[in-house]
Amino acid sequence: MELRQLEYFVTVAEERNFTRAAEKVRVAQPGVSAQIRKLERELGQELLDRSGRSVGLTEVGAAFLPHARAALAAVEQARLVVDELAGLVRGHVAVGTVTTHNADLPGLLVGFHEDHPAVEITLAEDSTDQLVEGLRTGRYDAAIISIGATAPSGVELHVVEDQPIVAAVAPGHELAPHPVVSLDALRGRPLISLPRGTGLRARLDEACATAGFRPHIAFEAGDPGVLAQLAAHGMGAAILPRGVAEHRAGTLGLRILTIDPPALRGRLALAWRSGGPSGPAGRALVARARAEMPGAG
């Protein structure tokens, strides 16, 4: 009994016609008929009723059909398992990330490489908007992005960090004596922020729009560390995640101001395309990252 015989038999049973079945399996009709006859001789029973205008199943054929389908499905699953493992051994993963965060992405990639040394890994930095688009198109298998209250369409998320966004100012700044300031207190004042397309900037723009004003962005930079340095030189209030601001405050002498109401928050998330990455290596990386990166909240 051969797999092709089972395939031809199942196809004829489904199409109820030798000619259509032969076209579907891309084999000449005599070849399909000959292989099914050979299968019937081996079983010692006729499987198909050829007496009518369309081909039907005999009683034995009807009983045999689900077992033939199950055998073909089992073989296909075995092939998928082999392909999956082969793809993981020889695969490639592309990872994207926003510029600055506290997630241990290097540790994750090092561990993944140790377990799968033949998988090629590429890492790129970009804005959240570009990373999300890259996930949707398959350019990235996974990415660390900054998000608001809702997830971008077309991606799934595992939130790894959720913290307030604060203002960091030099000791001589007029707001420095106030550890808590309203969002409205930032109206018209020079602000230092990440550029458009970043998650933090989107959160700031959204919050200010809700409050009825546009933020006055005096300086933009792609590195949060540069924002903190500009603030330390008295160029304005740097808008930063609290963790980044606290990390820089000691060395730069910054004052950290809590913004009230506290709805202005930054969420960092591991993201991947809805339905999962297309390749086995990418799926393995996402599964590992979800297991190793602690969830926020």
Topology:
Layout: H1 3-15, H2 18-25, H3 29-43, E1 48-49, E2 56-57, H4 59-90, E3 92-97, H5 105-115, E4 120-125, H6 128-137, E5 142-147, E6 155-169, E7 180-182, E8 191-193, H7 199-211, E9 217-220, H8 224-232, E10 237-241, H9 242-252, E11 255-260, E12 265-273, H10 280-292
Parallel strand pairs: 3-4, 3-5, 7-11, 8-9, 8-10
Antiparallel strand pairs: 1-2, 5-12, 6-10, 6-11, 6-12
Helix pairs in contact: 1-2, 1-3, 1-4, 2-3, 4-10, 8-9
End-to-end CA span: 57 Å
Describe the main β-sheet briefly: 10 strands, mixed
Query: What characteristic shape results from the CA principal axes?
Result: elongated
Number of helices: 10
Radius of gyration: 30 Å
Structural class by helix and strand composition = alpha/beta
Mean pLDDT: 88
Number of distinct beta strands: 12
Low-confidence stretches: none
Strand content: 15-25%
Kindly report the oligomeric state of this protein. single chain
* Helix content, binned percent: 40-55%
